[in-house]
Design a protein that fits this description.
Elements: H1 5-23, H2 30-41, H3 51-65, H4 69-86, H5 90-116, H6 123-140, H7 147-161, H8 170-191, H9 213-216, H10 228-250, H11 255-281, H12 296-321, H13 329-344, H14 358-367, H15 370-387, H16 390-403, E1 420-426, E2 431-440
Antiparallel strand pairs: 1-2
Helix pairs in contact: 1-2, 1-3, 2-4, 4-5, 4-6, 5-6, 6-7, 6-8, 7-8, 8-10, 10-12, 11-12, 12-13, 12-14, 13-14, 13-15, 14-15, 14-16, 15-16
């Protein structure tokens, strides 16, 4: 599908004032002003799901960046990282990579200084800086690097001490809530990896900062789907990790343990299916004032994106907690639903729910049959051409590596991909065999 001219005009009218203000900031070096403009106009488009969300995020984040060196430099890091993904010439790429390393180092130094200055610390700015560095480390570092986790843990620590009741500025409170949802989206994907998250969780617990049930089913215009799905993903990841640890410790889980575990899985699956049923039978719910900012076409894309994430949760639950093979009908049905959602969405270089589809498509790719692999490949290639996000390129590279493995479809599993060594999964024994030395620590954000 193609985007409308109305959408393009709307975007152009929302950023001009902010860009004009940036160009007047003579105290910022010209190169950094140029990077700020690139962030506002281009780099952020690959991470927000609507033009209104992009505009509002810029309105909230840029003024705070001008007061926080660590946040400003993290934004510049983000902008340079996006330029690197777009760069074809090796000479230009080398220059950008040097700039990237220098800005990362400078940002980390500023972050440490601001954290130590407890009297003047702006926790909202520090959370934003940590999340931006987290995602850039995820995209730019080696696949085996765990540096992104350090920043995710740092964001978690600051969030845990940020009391929303202490914020009198409504903009600060709005940004804090948005950053909290952003953190939860990253945490949910990290929870699905074999390494999980550093937060200690037991099976079927809530995520670290669960939302109210009524709010959690609103579709988030920043991230493309309902935050309640993050709660499901955290529970699934924690339960899978708990089962694996318990199985490794005892050889085989005892019967009573498995009975209790399966009751928990039944309850969780029923909750996911109930949420999906409500989504199908009711108009989509958005946060206050969000719906009127969206066109009917945009609303439809949000519905499709939300459906894709719901089926992503089902695949993880049924593959990893039910231990169904990827060829099982229930798994393949969800794979095809995700692919149909991707095929039906609007392909655009501008902010839209389409930019959020990396994780569902990657999940579908892990279980895709031969014919569907080509569809996954094509959709991820189209998504990369729209966003120029290095994370998408990495997701496809990892999938291609495993698609060419001669072990066959029955041996593919999410846990042998991100956050683990390249391993073969034997579901009947819940054990892992090392088949390569390099480790991958990656989430398809």
């Amino acid at each position: 599908m193609q985007e409308s001219s109305v959408t393009i005009a709307k975007e152009e009218s929302t950023t001009s004032d902010l860009l004009a203000q940036i160009k007047l900031l003579s105290w910022i070096p010209a190169q950094q002003r140029s990077l700020l403009v690139h962030f506002i106009q281009h780099a952020l488009q690959a991470s927000t799901c609507s033009i209104a969300a992009q505009r509002r995020f810029n309105e909230l984040i840029i003024p705070r960046a001008l007061q926080s060196p660590s946040l400003l430099k993290s934004i510049l890091v983000w902008s340079v990282g996006h330029k690197i993904a777009q760069c074809d010439r090796s000479e230009d790429r080398a220059t950008l990579e040097t700039m990237y390393r220098d800005l990362v180092q400078s940002s980390l130094q500023s972050l440490q200084m601001e954290i130590r200055d407890t009297q003047r610390m702006n926790k909202v700015a520090l959370i934003a800086a940590s999340l931006m560095l987290c995602l850039q480390k995820l995209c730019q570092e080696r696949l085996e690097s765990r540096a992104w986790r350090v920043h995710l843990d740092g964001a978690r620590g600051i969030i845990s001490t940020a009391d929303s009741s202490n914020y009198n500025d409504p903009d600060d409170l709005e940004l804090l809530r948005m950053l909290n949802r952003w953190y939860e989206a990253i945490e949910a994907l990290a929870a699905l990896t074999a390494r999980g998250t550093s937060e200690v969780q037991t099976a079927f617990t809530q995520s670290s900062s669960p939302m109210l049930a009524s709010e959690a089913e609103y579709i988030d215009e920043y991230f493309g789907y309902a935050p309640k799905i993050n709660v499901f993903l955290c529970k699934i990841g924690a339960a899978a990790r708990w089962l694996r640890i318990r199985s490794h410790a005892t050889g085989q889980p005892d019967r009573l343990f498995l009975e209790d575990f399966n009751v928990g899985v039944d309850t969780l699956e029923a909750s996911v299916l109930s949420t999906m049923s409500r989504s199908r039978s009711s108009p989509p719910c958005f946060y206050p004032r969000a719906r009127e900012r969206l066109s009917p076409c945009e609303i439809e894309d949000f519905v499709l994106c939300n459906q894709a994430f719901q089926h992503m949760a089902l695949i993880h639950l049924r593959r990893r907690l039910r231990n169904l093979p990827p060829t099982a009908g229930a798994v393949q049905d969800s794979v095809k639903e995700i692919l149909q959602c991707g095929i039906s969405m609007t392909y655009t270089t501008r902010p839209s729910p389409w930019v959020a589809m990396t994780a569902p498509l990657f999940t579908a790719g892990c279980a895709a049959a031969s014919a569907d692999k080509n569809t996954v490949r094509g959709l991820l290639q189209t998504l990369f051409s729209c966003t120029q996000s290095e994370s998408i390129s990495r997701a496809l590279t990892i999938l291609e590596r495993f698609w060419t493995d001669d072990q066959g479809l029955d041996y593919y599993d999410w846990e042998m991909l991100p956050g683990s060594s390249l391993r073969t999964f034997q579901p009947e024994f819940l054990t892992y065999n090392m088949i390569a030395n390099q480790e991958i620590d990656f989430i398809p954000y």
